[in-house]
Amino acid sequence: MAKFPITLSRFIIEQQAAHPEATGEFSVLLTQIGLVGKMIAHDLRRAGLNKILGTTGETNVQGEIVKKLDQIANDTFVRVFEHSGLVCVLASEEMEKPLKMVHEGARYMLLVDPLDGSSNTDVNMPLGAIFSIRRSRTGQSVEDELLQKGTEQIAAGYVLYGASTMLVFTVGQGVHGFTLEPSIGEYLLSNENIRIPSKGKVYSVNEGNYHRWPAGTQRYLDYLKVQDKPSGRPYSGRYSGCLVADVHRILLGGGIYLYPGEKDKPEGKLRLMYEGNPLAMVVEQAGGKASTGTMRILDVEPKALHQRVPLIIGSAEDVSLLEDYVQGRA
Ligand code: AHG
Ligand code: MN
Ligand code: MN
């Protein structure tokens, strides 16, 4: 008889068998994130037909034009979690302030980038959602509770809206990927215990910003393009405009994604709390590295919910070499 597929719920419950301190609540929380993924994937499959493309005309706290799908994705996270009884606070790229959920006593805090890669919405290119889960230590103010280092996350992951819809996450016990089987509406285990190669052959960066990068970063990108077979160069450039899609490619195949700081914007573009930290936890759990260029992303002390951070993430050897260039050792 064919091997019975492993559903998300079964996998999480079996994971918890090894970790009795994690209650069943956690498996429900991850399943709820999967529900958001199913609902958004459903919308995206016909986005060109149901008038949900284009912009809302609003500008968000990031100073970016809000796409209708950004708003839909954010509202879907709010609707699914506000009555779940699992999450006491929801923080989002699309909301200036964290949103207190109905159940203030709930144990978990959820931080999300509800739709990642928004420049791709109207051209049918890959999109994602990124989530970071923290435990609420009651009694502190919401801001203090949220603004903890990335090492304090208890789980993190992403939904990739690609050719198929995938849910990839870690609870600190390795990284596992599930693929949505739309015909039964279940996420089935497709990539157990993902390990990122220690070195890759792909780099992912918006080269249009080259002249704004610090000299060390420029020299590293120049190095990757030199013809030198023994060191696997030149690397291939692959950049989709969706961080989740680009990091997923690198997580499975190896390589390096960079959104560096720039001369007039040293903090870069990507947000620490709901882009850098969750993806850094995933990639480190798979054996890779995530750095600002000078320090480990997960060790950055947050000062503000929407603060930006330079993000260099991927294979350990590739990220370490970038750090050598940036810090003047190469
Ligand atoms: P978001 O859509 O959540 O704002 O994220 C967009 C991010 C990331 O997904 C992507 O890699 C990067 O911005 C693209 O930025 P550029 O268009 O500047 O390359
Ligand atoms: Mn994003
Ligand atoms: Mn976003």
Please tell me about this protein's structure.
This protein is of the alpha+beta class. It has 2 domains: 8-191, Fructose-1,6-Bisphosphatase, Chain A, domain 1 (2-Layer Sandwich); 202-326, D-Maltodextrin-Binding Protein, domain 2, CATH 3.40.190. It contains 8 helices and 15 strands. The protein has helices at residues 8-17, 24-45, 68-82, 142-146, 215-224, 243-253, 272-285, 316-326, and strands spanning 55-59, 65-67, 87-92, 99-100, 108-116, 127-135, 155-161, 165-170, 175-181, 186-191, 202-204, 236-237, 256-259, 289-291, 311-314. The strands form 3 sheets. An 8-stranded mixed sheet has the order 4-3-5-6-7-8-9-10, with helices on both faces. A 5-stranded mixed sheet has the order 12-11-13-15-14, sandwiched between helices. It has a two-stranded antiparallel sheet with strand order 1-2. Helix 5 links the parallel strand 11 (202-204) and strand 12 (236-237). Helix 1 (8-17) runs antiparallel to helix 2, helix 2 (24-45) packs antiparallel against helix 3 and helix 5 (215-224) crosses helix 8 (316-326). The chain is globular and about 55 Å long. The mean pLDDT is 94.
